[in-house]
Amino acid sequence: MTEPNCSFCDIRQFEERLIAEVDGFYVIATLGQITDGGYVLLFPVEHTPCMGALPNEKAEVSDRLIAKIAFAIVAEYRTKLPFGSLMPITLFEHGIVGQTVKHAHLHFIPTVLDLTPRIRGDFPDSVVKELQWAGQLEVSYRNNPRPYLYWVTGKAEDVAERVCWNPPAPLQYLRVIVAEALGRPERANWRTMDPELDKRLWSETVRLLRPYF
Fold first, then answer.
1. pTM value surpassing 0.90
2. Which of 64, 81, 124, 141 is at a distance of 20 to 30 A from 73, taking alpha carbons?
């Protein structure tokens, strides 16, 4: 199923940035490379409001692809990542809040950031939960669909996977706090980032990561 006017439902909108189409998902280099390359998105081909809304079989596929994408990013960007981390990347998703494209998409950033203190501070009235097992996000969302922020941070000692339910997050909120944490606030909004620099970075990302798929 596709949705009219959805840029992620129309492959022509991102064909240049396509890294792979595999098992009902796309992997693409995102517009607005906050880091110097290696910033990618994973999203289902079928129009879906958020990753939490994926059916069980699709969620299992996405879990396998997450591991594959993480491996590819680490292999190509290892010199820029902390040594010894179990998953030395940061993942996040705007789950029906803060989305500029209203089609589920999971962000992969090739750096380790602890976003939890900032999110707790910005949304003190929203519940933050650490997820304890694979698929818990989908089960929780299926039982009670509501907006959320989702993020995963890999560290040497653990991999923390968290969700914040019902936050009043503005557009591109997680991108903004990542850009600020990295000292690059000018790259927060993908619509206004320097287009020449951005194209150079996402083109390199496609070239380096495509062979892994």
1. yes
2. 141
